Each structure stands twice: as C-alpha cells, then as structure tokens.
C-alpha cells in the first residue's frame, strides 16, 4: 500500500511539473513563427519574444499586447492568429509558438523616433529593413518626412528616402536609431 501511495505521489508531482512546462509563464522566452504571408512580413513578425512580468507579449503591427502567460503554445498561437485577423492585418496567418529553454532573454531592439505614430524600441529580427522598422512604429505621422529618414549606427548618421525602393530595403542592425524628421516648409 505504501508503494502504491508513493508511486501515485511521484506521478502527481511529475504531472504538475509537466503541466508547468506546457503552459507559458511570465519572464520566459518563446519563439514565434509566422507563415502564410509575404516573406518580408514573416521576417518582421517571426522571432523570439519575452513574456512580460504582466504575462503579455507585444507583436509587431498589432495595436495592443496579447496575454501569453497561462496559455499553452497552441492556445497562444490561435490567439495571435485571431488578433491579426481581427485587426484585418492578415486574413489567413499561421502561427507556430515554441517554448524557449532560456529563462530570460535580452531582446535586441532598434529605436525608432521622431514623427512616427508609436516612437520607441522596435524588436529587432534578422532581415529587418529600414522601411519595416518605421512601419513597426506604426508608420510616419502626417507631419513625418519619409523622404529624409536618418539611420544612426555607431555614431554615424546617414539619410535615406523611403519613397525610393532601394532605400526601403536597407537592412538595420541591433541598436540602430532611426529618426523620421518633421516635414519642412515645402511639406517634404
């Protein structure tokens, strides 16, 4: 009888530990992969995210955070897909969420400032372009001069015209700073 009770106790502990590993917790890193959209947008969204202390994650292009803590990877993937559909950003996204083994993650960012709708840090992902970084900050305001965007890297500043396709595809690097200046008197 003691052996049976001991066995049941061990099974109960193992089940609780397994359940804890299958639900997402605050402070954990998760990998999110987006499929079924153009490749440049897959690069913008796909990457590693840290679940905040409040249990939320912020996804590019979405207006608000998404609750992640307490959900399974599959449930979170369905929530993200539903959010992109609800905001009419993607019609048929496919999201895959993978638990990371890292306890915490130092997230790489690019800072976007000036005349953009949501200035501040933007999550860096491999392949992030200058144009995508500005769009991840919800694009320029009505007063933003998209034709004179500054990219500051290692103390060096260079100006780009994001109306020019070749400038749109300039790759950014972690810790770059991007500034969208105000339009001048000629509205440029």
Please, what is the average pLDDT? 84
Strand order of the largest sheet: 7-6-10-8-9
CATH fold topology of the largest domain? wza like fold
Largest sheet: 5 strands, mixed
Kindly state the percentage of residues in helix. 25-40%
First-to-last CA distance? 83 Å
Strand residue percentage: 15-25%
Tertiary shape: elongated
**Helices and strands: which structural class?**
alpha+beta
Low-confidence stretches: 11-21
How many helical elements?
A: 5
Structure description:
The protein has five helices and ten strands; from the N terminus they run αβαβββαβββαββαβ. The radius of gyration is 21 Å and the shape is elongated. It folds into two domains: 78 residues, wza like fold (2-Layer Sandwich); 72 residues, Outer membrane lipoprotein wza fold like, CATH 3.10.560. A hairpin with an 8-residue loop joins strand 3 and strand 4. By secondary structure, it is of the alpha+beta class.
Key features of this structure:
10 strands; five-stranded mixed beta sheet; Outer membrane lipoprotein wza fold like; 188 residues; alpha+beta; wza like fold; 5 helices; three-stranded antiparallel beta sheet; 24% strand
């Amino acid at each position: 009888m003691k052996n049976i009770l001991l066995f049941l106790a061990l099974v109960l502990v193992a089940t609780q530990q397994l359940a804890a590993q299958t639900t997402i917790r605050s402070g954990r890193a998760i990998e999110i992969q987006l499929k079924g959209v153009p490749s440049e947008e897959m690069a913008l969204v796909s990457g590693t995210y840290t679940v905040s202390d409040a249990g939320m994650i912020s996804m590019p292009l979405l207006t608000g955070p998404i609750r992640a803590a307490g959900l399974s990877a599959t449930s979170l993937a369905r929530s993200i897909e539903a959010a992109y559909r609800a905001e009419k950003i993607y019609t048929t996204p496919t999201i895959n969420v993978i638990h990371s083994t890292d306890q915490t993650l130092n997230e790489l960012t690019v800072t976007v400032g000036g005349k953009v709708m949501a200035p501040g840090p933007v999550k860096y992902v491999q392949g992030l372009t200058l144009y995508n970084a500005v769009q991840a900050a919800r694009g320029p305001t009505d007063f933003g001069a998209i034709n004179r965007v500054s990219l500051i890297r290692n103390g060096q500043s260079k100006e780009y015209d994001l109306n020019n396709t070749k400038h749109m595809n300039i790759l950014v690097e972690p810790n770059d700073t991007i500034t969208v200046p105000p339009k001048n008197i000629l509205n440029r």
